[in-house]
C-alpha cells in the first residue's frame, strides 16, 4: 500500500512539473524503479503514466492555442511519427547506450532554450538577405521537431524542456502558448510510443496506474495556475529546472 501512495505522490508532483515547465519524469521514473520496476519497463511505464498529465494539461491550455490550429495539426503529425520511431528504437537498443548520451542532449536543450531566441533572430535576419533561406529555416525547424519527438519516444525524461527549447528556436515567446504546444507534443509522442510498448508488453500496469492518477490531477490544476504566473518567472523556472536536471544526469552518468 505504501508503494502505491508513494507512486501517487510522485505522479502528482510530476504532473505539476510537466505542466509548468517539464522534468516531471525525473520524479516519476526513479519512483517506479524504487518500488521494484526494472529500468527498461519503468521507462516505458513512465511514458504511459505521464501521458494522462500531458493530456489534462493540454486541455487546460486549449484557449491559448485557438490561434495556432495549423501549427498544432502539423505538430501532432510530426509528434506521432517521431514518437513511434523513438519507441521502436528504444525497444531495439540497450538502455545503457542511450543513458550515456542523455546528459549531453539535456545540456544542448538547456543552452538552446536559453539562447534559442537569439538564434531565431539570427535565422530571421539571414532569411531576409537570402531568398532561399526562409525555405531552409522551415525545413531545419521541421527536422529539429522530428528529432525532438524521436527523443521523446525513446526517453520521456526531459521532453518538456527539449520541446520548449525547440519552440524558443522556432520564434515563440508567449510562455503559455509554448506550454500548451509542449503538452500537445508530449501527449502525441507518448500515445504513439505507448501503442508500441503495449504491443511489446513493456508496461507495468498496476504501478503505472497509481502514477497516472497523480499526473492527471497534478497536470490539470497546475496548468490553470501557471497561466496566472508572470511569464518571466515561468521562464526562469524552466531554466532553473533545466540546469538542475542536466547537472543531475551528468552526476548520475559520469559521477
Which key terms come to mind for this protein?
11 helices; 255 residues; mainly alpha
How is the secondary structure organized here?
Layout: H1 2-20, H2 25-34, H3 39-60, H4 69-92, H5 95-99, H6 102-128, H7 133-154, H8 159-169, H9 175-199, H10 205-226, H11 231-254
Helix pairs in contact: 1-2, 1-3, 1-10, 2-3, 3-9, 3-10, 4-7, 4-9, 6-7, 6-8, 6-11, 7-8, 7-9, 8-9
Largest sheet: none
- Uncertain spans, ≥5 residues at pLDDT below 50? none
Helix segment tally: 11
Q: What characteristic shape results from the CA principal axes?
A: globular
* Helix/strand order, N-terminal first: HHHHHHHHHHH
Q: Assess the beta-strand content as a share of residues.
A: under 5%
Cα(first) to Cα(last) distance is 34 Å
- Overall structural class, as computed from helix and strand content, comes to mainly alpha
Mean pLDDT across all amino acids: 83
Radius of gyration of CA atoms, rounded to a whole number: 17 Å
Number of beta-strand segments:
0
Helicity, as a percent range: over 70%
**Number of domain units:** 1
Amino acid at each position: 500500500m505504501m508503494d502505491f501512495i508513494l507512486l501517487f505522490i510522485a505522479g502528482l508532483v510530476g504532473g505539476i512539473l510537466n505542466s509548468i515547465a517539464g522534468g516531471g519524469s525525473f520524479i516519476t521514473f526513479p519512483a517506479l524503479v524504487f518500488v521494484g520496476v526494472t529500468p527498461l519497463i519503468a521507462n516505458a511505464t513512465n511514458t504511459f503514466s505521464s501521458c494522462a498529465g500531458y493530456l489534462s494539461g493540454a486541455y487546460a491550455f486549449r484557449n491559448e492555442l485557438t490561434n495556432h490550429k495549423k501549427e498544432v495539426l502539423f505538430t501532432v503529425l510530426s509528434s506521432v511519427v517521431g514518437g513511434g520511431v523513438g519507441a521502436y528504437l528504444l525497444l531495439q537498443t540497450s538502455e545503457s547506450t542511450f543513458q550515456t548520451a542523455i546528459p549531453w542532449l539535456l545540456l544542448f536543450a538547456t543552452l538552446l532554450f536559453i539562447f534559442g531566441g537569439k538564434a531565431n533572430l539570427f535565422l530571421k535576419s539571414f532569411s531576409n538577405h537570402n531568398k532561399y533561406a526562409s525555405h531552409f529555416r522551415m525545413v531545419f525547424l521541421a527536422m529539429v521537431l522530428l528529432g525532438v519527438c524521436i527523443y521523446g519516444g525513446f526517453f520521456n525524461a526531459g521532453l518538456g524542456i527539449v520541446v520548449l527549447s525547440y519552440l524558443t528556436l522556432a520564434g515563440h515567446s508567449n510562455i503559455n502558448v509554448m506550454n500548451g504546444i509542449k503538452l500537445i507534443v508530449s501527449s502525441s509522442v507518448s500515445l504513439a510510443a505507448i501503442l508500441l510498448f503495449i504491443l511489446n508488453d513493456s508496461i507495468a500496469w498496476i504501478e503505472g496506474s497509481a502514477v497516472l492518477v497523480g499526473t492527471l490531477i497534478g497536470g490539470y490544476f497546475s496548468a490553470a495556475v501557471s497561466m496566472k504566473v508572470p511569464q518571466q518567472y515561468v521562464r526562469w523556472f524552466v531554466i532553473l529546472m533545466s540546469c538542475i536536471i542536466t547537472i543531475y544526469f551528468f552526476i548520475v552518468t559520469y559521477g
